[in-house]
Fold Methyltransferase domain-containing protein.
Amino acid sequence: MSSINEPQERESTFYDSPYLAEHYDIFCEKHMTEQRIDVPVYWEQLQKIQSSAPQQPFVVLDVGTGTGRILHGLASQASQESYDLSTVEFIGLEPSQDMLDRAALNSQMDHVGRVAWEQGTALDLVGVPSLEGGAKKVSMLMWAVGSISHLHEPEQPTQFLSQVAKVLLPGTGRVIISISHHLAPKDLKDAAIAPWENPPRLASRAFPDIVYQTTQLETKTVGHVQHDTREVLVIKTLPGGTEVVVEKNLVHFKGRLWKENELVDTAKNAGLELADIINSEREAFYVFQLPA
Ligand SMILES: C[S@@+](CC[C@H](N)C(=O)[O-])C[C@H]1O[C@@H](n2cnc3c(N)ncnc32)[C@H](O)[C@@H]1O
């Protein structure tokens, strides 16, 4: 591989460039194997919540929506089943504009009443423009695929859940939060991530002659935070076959490890009651509600 004009390594969140947004989708396709598929869980919840409370509009807020995988999945499921989403409003909330730009490219959502892709954070749900300062209430709120572990600072889960309590519709509204089993170990010493074999390169479909190459550099557990450092290279093959690195991403993931009952207790302190826990092979979906 040529090192001519190699770009400077940049600190990256894993989600913060047009290349990485595409890489995320390709990575999910490869790794969202049968046991990881979660859209059916959210689909069942949507129908259940809507049948118990057909408010209009029925607002669905997907926190950390990324490239919109879950909302696109729900829209597609509704099409297949001729389920009416014309009074449903989807809001995809996400800090990375690159992920949102990619989410908005998918145009198979004409049958959804309203779709908004909005930049923001889980720590300020009242500030989500479509929620009008908390005046518009959310019927279904989710944060998928264990990503609440991005809140690795000690006070962040409390901040997030108190924001949830401000925007959720009391009584019939539901919050579904996924926690990955591997981030809720029985014992912290079981939390270390096993070093993984570096995966094969993934070919881009959106960018000509581009491949993505990921190398795991280090993993360690410090207190209740799991650290996982990876390098993601974006490599272009030039005419003639020379490979050049066009983007060099250094990603320091920090993932919160959950103590037993921590999420449920934190939610309770924010006024949220546990309604259900749904377990799949890879994650647990905690369902909360606010008293009417
Ligand atoms: C693993 S991805 C999940 C994306 C999508 N929900 C899915 O299931 O494919 C985690 C997402 O959470 C977002 N995220 C990280 N910190 C966040 C925060 N404080 N508030 C909201 N979203 C956040 C990331 O930018 C990323 O897009």
Summary: The first helix runs from residue 18 to 31.
